[in-house]
Amino acid sequence: MTILLIEDEPLVARTLEKMVRKLEPGADIAGPLASVADTCAYLQTHPSPDLIVSDIQLADGVSFDIFQQVDMACPVIFTTAYDEYAIRAFKLNSIDYLLKPIDPEELQKAFAKFHRWQPDGQNFKQQFREFLADLSNPGQGTTRKYKRRFTAHYLRQIVPVAQEKVACFCRDEVIYLHTTEGQKLITDYNTLDELEELTDPAVFFRANRQYLVNLEAIASYQPHYSGKLLLTLHKPNTAEIIISKEKSPVFRDWFEGSV
């Protein structure tokens, strides 16, 4: 198996390569390649790899440019410091993504997904073309429908919680639903990634690996000298919800209604 790594930050590239070699000791590692131009040249002169692990932001553009120039038929695991809403489309096309800094456990899960999935090359090509077309023509595809009501455990019952009553979802061994009235309810959802796919991105924001927050539940945010943001909710009185320096610009745009 050949795995192609595409990453323009040398330190991140070395760390990623070590992680991949540990997970896949028998694989041939190609790269890391740092630019759109180098990657296009490689893919045009070498057999298609079995898997690509690619950063989105590269030295000379974005990795989407590569896949628009080169006809390829292998799955991709994207990595990015920016949790933008277009990334939601990746999962619809059986493509995974990881937020930086890359968590070894999340990378392991992504590789496990790759091994479980045995893609049909032509089918993948078509899915990927549709995905790239959606990126080029936002708003032209089928309108997504998002959940407006969620279920949770209350005493011995399963109860519905309307979207406007959800303050946030929190991962702490299990996924908890915090209501705007201060209740903390256990849900049957497996991951925040799953919930992120089900929720309206205009309403909910993935603050970090632990929290998915409702816009209307945010009382305020406070800039930190490090470039991070500290969120305060109306309810519940949770521990500090921290947004990384890298995601802060995305959050500000979302909070102000610019996305």
From TrEMBL:
<dbReference type="InterPro" id="IPR007492">
    <property type="entry name" value="LytTR_DNA-bd_dom"/>
</dbReference>
<dbReference type="GO" id="GO:0005829">
    <property type="term" value="C:cytosol"/>
</dbReference>
<keyword id="KW-0597">Phosphoprotein</keyword>
<dbReference type="GO" id="GO:0000976">
    <property type="term" value="F:transcription cis-regulatory region binding"/>
</dbReference>
<dbReference type="InterPro" id="IPR011006">
    <property type="entry name" value="CheY-like_superfamily"/>
</dbReference>
<dbReference type="GO" id="GO:0000156">
    <property type="term" value="F:phosphorelay response regulator activity"/>
</dbReference>
<dbReference type="Pfam" id="PF00072">
    <property type="entry name" value="Response_reg"/>
</dbReference>
<dbReference type="GO" id="GO:0006355">
    <property type="term" value="P:regulation of DNA-templated transcription"/>
</dbReference>
<dbReference type="Pfam" id="PF04397">
    <property type="entry name" value="LytTR"/>
</dbReference>
<dbReference type="InterPro" id="IPR039420">
    <property type="entry name" value="WalR-like"/>
</dbReference>
<feature type="domain" description="Response regulatory">
    <location>
        <begin position="2"/>
        <end position="115"/>
    </location>
</feature>
<dbReference type="GO" id="GO:0032993">
    <property type="term" value="C:protein-DNA complex"/>
</dbReference>
<feature type="domain" description="HTH LytTR-type">
    <location>
        <begin position="175"/>
        <end position="257"/>
    </location>
</feature>
<keyword id="KW-0238">DNA-binding</keyword>
<feature type="modified residue" description="4-aspartylphosphate">
    <location>
        <position position="55"/>
    </location>
</feature>
<protein>
    <submittedName>
        <fullName>DNA-binding response regulator</fullName>
    </submittedName>
</protein>
<dbReference type="InterPro" id="IPR001789">
    <property type="entry name" value="Sig_transdc_resp-reg_receiver"/>
</dbReference>
